[in-house]
Amino acid sequence: INVLSLLVITPIVAIYMLNDWDRMVARVDHLLPDEHTDTVRELARQIDETLGGFARGQSLVCLALGTIYAAGLWVIGLESAIIVGLLAGLVSFMPYVGAAFGMMLAGALGLGQFGFDWWPFVQMAVVFAFGQFIEGNFLTPRLVGDRVKLHPVWIIFALLAMGTLFGFLGLLLAVPIAAIIGVLVRHGVTLYERDYVKRVDD
Q: What percent of the chain has pLDDT over 90?
């Protein structure tokens, strides 16, 4: 029922928001203090660019992982390897969940295809472990970390902290929230360096 209601309500809300977007922005703009309007607009623009970069980077990570998983499972000889790999890559926007989902799905299909022969399952585990290694050390830091202007350590910390505090939802929102906080912190540091440090130097 929740999924069906979400499928019905989401397009309706999206239509209303698209229709009234200019009015909502104008209303918020009107509420801003005149002396801070340019600052708030600039911060909103930076946050928009950062979240857009995160979405594009995460999409590329999912596509790359789906390709790696599909190719690896195809080499092993698993039937429906491309479908399993692409599904696992699609779910990989949730850290670790994509690999776990793909491994369980591939394992279930492999059990029906290979029986109790353990060697194909070892190969499947190697494929997903390799994908996770490539994601953690190359894909996410380069495609996501650079776009959101966060060091990989901060991304890992955000995932661990948000996952511990809020569970599955925390994992989904960890990087976008960390990116927004990063924009605000960088702005605060800029103001500090411009005002306080300058006064100390004078």
A: 20
Q: Is the dihedral angle over the CA atoms 141, 142, 143, 145 positive or is it negative?
A: positive
Under a CB-based contact definition with an 8 Å cutoff, are residues 131 and 125 in contact?
Answer: no
Distance (Å) of CA 3 to CA 8, 9, 90 = 9, 10, 19
Instruction: Answer whether 148's CB lies under 8 Å from 178's CB.
Output: yes
pLDDT: is 201 or 9 the higher one? 9
Stretch among 10-24, 40-54, 56-70, 149-163 having the lowest mean pLDDT: 149-163
Number of Cβ within 10 Å of residue 47's Cβ equals: 16
Q: What is the pLDDT, as a whole number, of residue 65?
A: 93
SS3 81: helix
Which residues in 166-187 are b (16+ Cβ under 10 Å) and which e?
eeeebbbebbbebbbebbeeee
Nearest to 171 by CA among 155, 186, 185, 182: 155
Structure letter (DSSP) for residue 140: I
CA 57 to chain centre: 8
Q: Any alpha helices (H) in 32-151, and if so which ranges?
A: 37-76, 81-91, 97-114, 118-134, 146-148
Closest CA to 107 of 70, 90, 115: 115
Q: What is the DSSP string of 173-191?
A: HHHHHHHHHHHHHHHHHHH
